[in-house]
Amino acid sequence: MSVITARPSRLSRFNVASLTLGLAFLYLPILILVIYSFNASRLVTVWGGWSLRWYHEFFNDRAMIDAAWMSLRVGATSATAATVLGTLAAVALSRGQGFRGRMLFSGMLYAPLVMPEVITGLSLLLLFVALEAERGFWTVTIAHTTLTMCFVAVVVQSRLVSLDRSLEEAAMDLGCDPLRAFVLVTLPLIAPAVVAGWMLAFTLSLDDLVIASFTTGPGSATLPIRIYSEVRLGVKPEINAICTLVIGLIAVVIVVASLASKLSSDRGESAAPL
Amino acid sequence: MADDIATSEPAAEPAPPSSPVPRPDPQPPILRIENVVKTFGSFRAVDGVSLDIRAGEFFALLGPSGCGKTTLLRMLAGFETPDEGRILLSGEDIAPVLPHQRPVNMMFQNYALFPHLNVRDNIAFGLKRAGMPRGEIASRVAEMVALVRLEGLEKRKPDQLSGGQKQRVALARSLARRPKVLLLDEPMAALDKKLRESTQFELMELQRKLGMTFIIVTHDQEEAMTVASRIGVMKAGQLEQVAVPRRLYEEPASRWVAEFVGDINLFEGEVTAREALRLRVATSTAGELVVAQPVAPVAETKVAVAIRPEKIRLALRGPAADAAAAAALNRVEGVITDASYLGGKTVYKIRLDGGAVLHAAQANTARLDADGYGVNQRVVAWFTPDDCVVLER
């Protein structure tokens, strides 16, 4: 709220009302979910007093813990791979002005952004079946890498485009070969965008149900798959507890990310576009 | 008539076409540009430029935007490769040498300071890449910081510096590696006028002190005249004239150069008589003018007579017409249509009886002497044949 009051012109009644309604629309359901995760009652919709019972239940639910661990591993691995590949793609697109088929390449890179996930998932499934790859951790990770790579590329490219090309030329002029110019000058300057891209990829992977359910195999369910199959049998309050933990994790990641980007902008760098 | 000017310049004039006595080269040029061509698509950005630059020279490439001067500079730095021709640095073709291996450094127009590094690390950047020992880097950086007077700002990041300070960091960074040739791309374009003027003098002093070869690209003719010992004027990818500043101004090689460098009056006419030292030119808008025979004889009969505004004298009466004719002075009469007081001088626009508009600049030499002319006043303007330049149309 300090940001709002610090504005030179005060917000009008209308602005306050629309802001309140908008935030309520976004966060009220989540707030209810968080409150109900501390419900003592077995019934999801009936309030039975405060309790940590469902958190306890979750930590003793071996299958659920495994699924959560699986999701974290897939998320971290695929986000890292997607960040490396997406950053390289962004560099190629924004710096390699001359190469043939650049337009085609950028179109193909961005296609997964608008491609229905069902199609991506199904085509990957067909590929893995054709290759007779054993479905599990690696197939989900590869699938998520292909999905999230283009998001990383978009984020990093927007930063690269705003970066003055003459900085790289200055680095080369001062004795850097192109690779060193990239590592010593470009990379530190686009780092906030690269970090933002990684986190975007991580959360997308954590969140994905459709592609994961196409490409996963027996015994390697991710958290969303596990939750979805539990919910089909009826919503248990335990699900609320898991979701609250996931929300907490994402909130921590976002706070850390914005602090990091603020810190880097205080050090004289411009922050990531996110 | 300007040969004394050319010879008074120690490192000047590699025998331009109009120079009567080509002097022998005292030493081979540090940089030789031979018939360099660079095209972008169908656009010839640099179209057959040849140029020699000697060690220790302060050379300016002057021209309007889009004339190819920056492209030429970028070819010297290695960011563009010439399509034709050669660039020799100390006698060696540098075409295959990549930018990071060239013993030249460039100061960029927007300075291109690394925003994530402080002043010290920006200056040390090129030294670290050269593998210089730590102690030596520290002393070189300190030397550079002192040279551009940035003491106390070593820990600052670029965005904590003023425009002038950034400019000096960029200069220090490009000088730190002691390049054979320093390239400066519009180094003062972002500074305000006052700061630009003082920086120009600092730059000249620095160049003299270091004895380094500087090549500056600029579109500002005053800047080029101030800093450079020699100027190459570029137009549409070609060098129009290469000369010392004074020669460029007083003896422009073409009508285009005459109009681009400074203010000038041009009267088109036809040569009616050729005397031993003089030409008589009949102009349609300013009557008959007497001009000095140029060093390189003008073959054409259709010419343009050029006269700089400050070479024109004004008076209410002036010399009588027959006295002026006897003294071979050019005498024209007209009415002042506009007077611009510019502080040091006043520029009058005079509609001549023949129809031409003459620009005449008068120095304001006395503070209290309000002897300026008013609008609608009838005046006599006169100038000598030696102050006129004959140009082919």
Provide a descriptive summary of the structure in words.
Chain A is mainly α and 274 residues long. Chain A folds into two domains: 2-36; 61-266, MetI-like (MetI-like fold). Chain A has helices spanning 2-6, 13-36, 53-59, 62-95, 102-114, 117-130, 137-162, 165-173, 178-207, 210-215, 223-232, 237-266. In chain A, helix 4 (62-95) runs parallel beside helix 7. The longest helix of chain A is centred in the first third of the chain and has 34 residues, at 62-95. Chain A is globular, with a radius of gyration of 22 Å. In chain A, 33% of the residues are buried. Chain B has ten helices and 20 strands. Chain B is α+β, with helices and mostly antiparallel strands and 393 residues long. Chain B folds into two domains: 3-103 and 179-255, Rossmann fold (3-Layer(aba) Sandwich); 263-392, RNA polymerase II/Efflux pump adaptor protein, barrel-sandwich hybrid domain (OB fold (Dihydrolipoamide Acetyltransferase, E2P)). In chain B, the strands form four sheets. A six-stranded mixed sheet of chain B has the order 6-7-8-3-9-10, with helices on both faces. A five-stranded antiparallel sheet of chain B has the order 13-12-11-14-20, with no helix packed on it. The chains are: A mainly alpha (274), B alpha+beta (393). Chain A binds chain B through residues 164, 166-167, 169-177, 180-181, 184-185, 188-189, 267-270, and chain B through 77-79, 98-101, 105-106, 108-110, 112-116, 125-126, 129-130, 157-160, 173-174, 177.
